[in-house]
Amino acid sequence: MQRGNSVFSRLEVKKYILKKNLKRDLPASIVVFLVALPLCLGIALASGAPLFAGLITGVIGGIVVASISGSQLSVSGPAAGLTAIVLGAITTLGNYETFLLAVVLAGVIQLILGILKGGMIGNYFPSSVIEGMLAAIGLTLILKQLPHALGVDSDFFGDESFVQGDNENTFSAISNAFSHFGVAAIVISALSIAVLIIWPKFKKLSVIPAPLLVVVLGVALALAFSGTEYALAQSHMVEIPVVNGIGEFFSLFTLPDFSQITNSKVWVVAGTIAVVASLETLLSIEAIDKIDPIKRVSPTNRELVAQGAGNIVSGLVGGLPMTSVIVRSSANVNSGGRTKMSAIFHGTWLLLSLLFIPGLINMIPLACLAAILLVTGYKLTRIALFKHMYHKGWDQFIPFVITIVAVLLTDLLKGVAIGMLFSIFYLLRTNMRNPFFYKVQEEGDKKHIRIKLAEEVSFLNKASIQVLLTNIPKETNVIIDGTNSRYIDPDVLETIFNYKHNAYTKGIIVSLENIQQQYIVPKLNNKAIEEINN
After folding, report:
1. 409 and 505 together in one domain
2. N or C, fewer C-beta in 10 Å, the chain?
3. Is there a single domain that holds both residue 217 and residue 282?
4. Coil, strand or helix at 440
5. CATH number of the structural domain spanning residue 486
6. Global pTM?
7. Residue 17 domain-assigned (yes or no)
8. pLDDT in tens, 106-123
9. Using CA atoms, how far apart are residues 25 and 31, in angstroms rounded to an integer?
10. Do β-strands 446-453 and 436-443 pair in parallel, antiparallel, or remain unpaired?
């Protein structure tokens, strides 16, 4: 009886937690759905793929990937960072069906990477670079959405690259938008931003998500402006394919061409997609964990498995390659999402909107959706973040700023790579400065120097140790103490032993204390390794 009561109690607790989180996840899923909808369409358009491909990728990213993933807040879908690769791959491979085969194979590769614990790479992204990437995404959202908020939609919705496909760049596009703005779009975006800021302050009314209210307001204002000289053109509205019935819906699916399995170009494209998509996903997962209010840690290997499964399914039904996407995920966090149910619901809303209300969805102005992303971008680029990173010291602040500038002037992966280089430079400098400490004692005319090595002495410490030993004056007694050292790199050991052997020529007497001839890298037990990998 007690056992039964215990099980009943656990079930009740689970139901309570689910119900409690549902109050947050359901409204958040609507916000993510509204953000994801134009992004899916814009990325598909820029990739040279059917619009349906972008939407079905969002559906799969929401339902399939989120169900398998261990991340509670990540939202997956077609990524802006893959548009150039997809566009080039479709052209190179000759047709869309062959490209879909590459997407399926990319998913298989990701699946294998996850099984082989390739997600551990995510543990090596420096915090300063991840923080810089988040701030850069926020600034990118603000800069890229300004033209849409002003009613100029020449660039695809969701573009993140500095150089745009319409022969503009981020800054020239803003300048051009101020010269060709639309009054209706400005009114809609300005009122939308006001609602997004003011509405959440009324707690009793916040049951209705502010972004949902913004969309209703945007549709109403667009209808009010229709028939006037300020009316919005259809190009300034969301445009999803209108599906008349289940039969027509299934006719939109495209199958991959498996006869091209031996085509080497397919495998090159698949490998490229797998590597780029995996890196973007791992970066996104690290970033989302940082802004998670509960500070949960997502299992990176499981995420690669989930992404692999998602890309396999996407390729089989005619979708695009996908990643975990920072913009959607951060919108999820900022809207109060708590569990993966938010991402799953968002995928469901995408599917239902395509099947049942495409006409209504096509009445939504892009200006009000741009307003949602502008506010999301502001929350990611808060001034407090810059102050926080500044107070952490120059070795953190400089890579942080460099990452921001590099992402803004290139794209996500290139910018992060540049930020990583600067972070590695500061890491090397820090390691070179902290391999040991030493104490000088004088007895008459004879100096005694004790050099105490650190707990871990790596190859990176070799140069600084060599400099110290070379500058020790003649006629000195030197004690090199390895008592605290759990590991000393073989190259450093060779440097120490060679110095001991040759020091007598300068009248230097070298004594070694607790320094072994060889050190074995400490191994983690299986349980610890499993915890790190998962």
Report:
1. no
2. N
3. yes
4. strand
5. 3.30.750.24
6. 0.83
7. no
8. 999 999 999 999 998 888
9. 10
10. antiparallel
Question: In angstroms, rounded to a whole number, what is the distance separating the alpha carbons of residues 444 and 133?
Answer: 58
The answer on 196 and 97 residing in a single domain is: yes
Rounded average pLDDT over 445-453: 81
pLDDT of residue 532 exceeding 50:
no
Exposure class string for 281-300: b at 16+ Cβ within 10 A, else e: bbbbbbbbbebbeeeeebbb
How far is it, in rounded angstroms, from Cα 9 to Cα 353?
38
- 396: its two tokens: 């953190």
- d(CA 75, CA 324) in angstroms, rounded, equals 6
Asked if 330 and 469 sit in the same domain, the reply is no
Q: Tell me: the pLDDT tens digits for 234-263?
A: 899 999 989 888 888 899 999 999 999 999
Q: Which residues lie across from 237 on neighbouring strands?
A: 365
Of the chain, the percentage scoring pLDDT greater than 90 comes to 65
Decide if 32 contacts 331 (C-beta within 8 A): yes
What digits encode the pLDDT tens for the residues 337-355? 999 999 999 999 999 999 9
The pair phi, psi for residue 449, each rounded to 5°, is: -120, 125
Range of the domain at 184: 22-419
Cα–Cα nearest to 457, from 479, 421, 481? 481
Least confident of 6-10, 126-130, 409-413, 470-474: 6-10
pLDDT, position 520: 83
Q: Residue 211: which of 395, 387, 429, 374 has the closest Cα?
A: 374
Confidence label for 220 from pLDDT (cuts 50, 70 and 90): very high
Measured from the Cβ of residue 522, the count of other Cβ atoms closer than 10 Å reads 8
39 found inside a domain: yes
Structure token pair of residue 324: 């975990």
What value does the mean pLDDT take over residues 136-146? 95
Task: Answer whether residue 502 is part of any domain.
Answer: yes
pLDDT score, position 472: 87
| Domain shared by 464 and 409, yes or no | no
Does 492 share its domain with 375?
no
What pairing do the DSSP bridges indicate for beta strands 487-488 and 446-453?
Answer: unpaired
- Report the DSSP pairing between strands 76-78 and 322-324: antiparallel
pLDDT of residue 327 exceeding 50: yes
Complete DSSP assignment for 58-112 = HHHIIIIIHHH-S-SS--EEE-GGGHHHHHHHHHHHSSHHHHHHHHHHHHHHHHH
Q: Does 384 share its domain with 457?
A: no
Q: How many domains does the chain have?
A: 2
The CA distance from 135 to 334, in Å, is 14
Q: What is the pLDDT of residue 445?
A: 64
| Band of pLDDT at residue 292, cut at 50, 70 and 90 | very high
Tokens of 22: 């549902």
Other beta carbons within 10 angstroms of residue 12's beta carbon come to: 10
Q: How far is CA 13 from the centre of its chain?
A: 33
Confirm whether 9 is domain-assigned: no
Taken in order 113, 116, 121, 123, is the CA torsion positive or negative? positive
Same domain, 442 and 398: no
Question: Among 28, 377, 20, which Cα is nearest to 200's?
Answer: 28
